[in-house]
Amino acid sequence: MSLQFIVDGLLTGSMIGLGAIGVTLTYSILRFSNFAHGDFMAWGTYATLAVVSAIGATFGKMAPIGPLSFGWSLLVALVVGMAFTALLALLLDKVLFSRLRSQGQAIIVVMASFGASMALRSLLEFTFTSRPTYFSRAIQIAMPIGFGIRITPDQIALLLLTAVLVLGVHLLMTRTQTGRSMQALSQNAALARIVGINVAKVVRVTWIVGGSLACVAGVMIGILVQIRPFMGFDMLLPMFAAAILGGIGSIPGAVLGGLIIGLAEAGAVQLIGAEWRAAVSFIILMAVLFVRPIGLFGVGER
Amino acid sequence: MIDLIGYGAFFLSTALIFSLVTLGLNLQWGLTGLFNVGLAGFVAIGAYTSALLTTPDDPARLGGFGLPILVGWAGAMVVGGVAAALTGIATLRLRSDYLAITTFGVAVVVQLVALNAQKLTGGPFGIGFIPRPFGSLAETPLLFNLSNLAVVSAVTLIAYLALEHLSRSPWGRVLKALREDERAAISLGKSASFYRVQAFAVGGAIMALAGALQAHFTGFIAPDNYLPILTFQVWVMLIVGGSGSNLGGVVGSILVWAIWAGSGTLTSFLFPPEQQARAASLQIVAIGVMLCVILLVRPNGLFGDRPKRPRFGKRAKLAAAKSGSGS
C-alpha cells in the first residue's frame, strides 16, 4: 500500500484530536460526555464562513497567502469564529447544563446534550440547508515529498497550526495557575473546592478552550473536506473514541488517540474501502473498553 | 368518515409501535438507569433480522428464507437481545457514560452495515416484499388498517403487561434498588452488572421486536428509517410520559407522535414544497428544545417515577435540612 495514508491519517487525526481535547476536558472536569460537542464544530465553521463572506463583501476579495488556498481574512474570521463558538458553549452551559448539573444527575446532563445537539444541528440545516459548501473551490497541487507521499501547502499549514495549538493547551494546563486548578478539579472535585479553587472560573475556561478548539477542528474539515451541518455529528464517535483511548482527562492522550484513530481510518480506507471508515473508531473503542478501559494515559476512577 | 377511521387506525398503529420501543427504553433507562442513545440500531437489527427470515428467496442477497412471520419476530428478539447483551457486557462494569458512547457507536455501525453490506441488507435500497400479516386484505384499506392495529395493540398490550409484571417481580425490585442505591443493593448480594446486562438485553429484545413489527406493517425497510432522529423521538416520548412508568411511556408515545405528525401536516400546509426539507429540520429543533425544557422544568414527565430521594446537589441539601429539623 502507498504511504500516502500517513499524511491523510495525520490530518484526520489532527481534526479528531483537537475535538477530543474538548470532549476529554468536559468529561473530566464537568463529568459528562457532551454529545453537542460535534455541533460546536459545525456552528464554529459556519460562523467562520459567515465572517469570511462578510469580510469579502466589505473589503473585496483578499489574495491568498503565498501558496495557501486562503487569505488573511480566513485567519481573522477563524479567531472570530473561535470566540463565537466559545460563547455558544458558555451560553448553552448557562441556560441548560449548569442548571441540570446543580440537580445532580450526571446522566440527565448527557441526555440534555443529546437533545441540544439535535436542535443545534437542525437549526444549522434550517438556516444553511444541508447542501455542502466550501471555503474555497480552488484546487491545490500536492507536492511530492518522497516515499510516494504528496502533501498540499494547506495541509502543511494546518498540521503546524494543530501542533502549535496542542502545545499551547498543554502549556496552559501544566504551567499556569488556571490550568493547575483545572487539573485539580478533575482529580478531586471536593478537595479542589475546599482549597478554594474558583470552580465557576474553571468551568468557564473549560468551555472556552473546548469550544474554540472545536471551531478550529471544524474549520480544518471545512478547508480540507467540506462544510455540512452534519460535519460535527459525524466526528462525534471518533472524538469520543480518541478521548477514551487516550485516557479521560489527558490532553496529550486525546491528541495521540486522535492521531491513532486518524491513521487507522486512513489505513482502513486504503485496505477495505471508504464506506467502512466510521466503523474503525467503534472497533478501537470496543477494544479499549475490553482491554484497558482507562486508556493509554488514564488513571483509575477516583 | 371511513377515511378518518382508517387514518386513525394507521396513526395509532404507528404510535403503538413507537410505544413498544419506548417500553423497551423504559426498562433500560426508567427502571434500571441504563442510557441507550443507539436504540435506533437495535430497532434496525430487529427489522432486518425479521425481514431476512421471512422474505421470499432473493438471489441478490443472503436468504430470504420465507419462514413464518412469528419465527421472524422471535428471531428479531433473539438477535436484538444478544446484541444488547454484548453491548452491556462490554460497558456495564464501567462508568455510565461509556455505555452511552458505545450504544451511539452501535447505531453508527448498524447504519453502516445496513448501507454497505448489500449482500446482507440490500444496501441503500433496503428490503422489500416483507410479508404483511393481513396482506390479503390490502384491497380494503379500512379493514387492513384495523387488523394491523389489532395485531400491534395485542403485541403492545402483551409487552406492557409482561413489563408491569416484571417491574413488580423480585427481579424488577432488584433493578430499582440498583438504580436508587447501588451500594446498598450490592451489599445485599445482588450482582449489579449481571442484573443490568439482563435488563439491557430484554430491553434490546423489545426494541428489536418493535422494529420487526414495523417492518411487517409497512412491508418495506431501508437504512433511512433508522437514523439518530428515531432514537431522539423515542427519548422525547419517554421523557414526556415520565421515565419509570410503563403507562407514561405508552401515553407519551401517542402524545409526542400526535404532536410530531400534526406539526408535520402543519408545515406541509404552511411551506411550499421546495421548503419542506428545511421546515422538517425546524420541527426537529422544536422537539429538541421541548426535550431540554421538560428536563429543566418537569424532569418527572407526566407519570414519572424517578428516585424520590435526591442524593446530590441543592435538593439533597434541602431534603437533608428538612429531615434534620423534622426529627
Q: Can you walk me through this structure?
A:
The complex is a heterodimer of chains A (302) and B (327). Chain A has 302 residues and is an all-alpha fold. Chain A has one domain. Chain A has helices at residues 4-30, 37-59, 72-103, 106-128, 153-175, 177-187, 189-194, 199-224, 236-246, 251-271, 277-291, and strands at 143-144, 150-151. Chain A has a two-stranded antiparallel ribbon. In chain A, a hairpin with a 5-residue loop joins strand 1 (143-144) and strand 2. In chain A, helix 1 (4-30) crosses helix 9 (236-246). The N and C termini of chain A lie far apart (44 Å). Chain B has 327 residues and is an all-alpha fold. The longest helix of chain B is centred in the N-terminal third of the chain and has 30 residues, at 2-31. Chain B starts with a helix and ends with a helix. Chain B has a domain at 2-227. Chain B is built from 13 helices and no strands. The chains are: A mainly alpha (302), B mainly alpha (327). The interface between A and B is large, with 49 and 50 residues.
Give the structure's gist in a few sentences.
In chain A, 72% of the residues lie in helices and 1% in strands. With 302 residues, chain A is mainly alpha-helical. Chain B has 327 residues and is an all-alpha fold.
Average pLDDT of chain A works out at 87
Report strand % of chain A: under 5%
Number of domains of chain A: 1
Q: What distance separates the N and C termini of chain A?
A: 44 Å
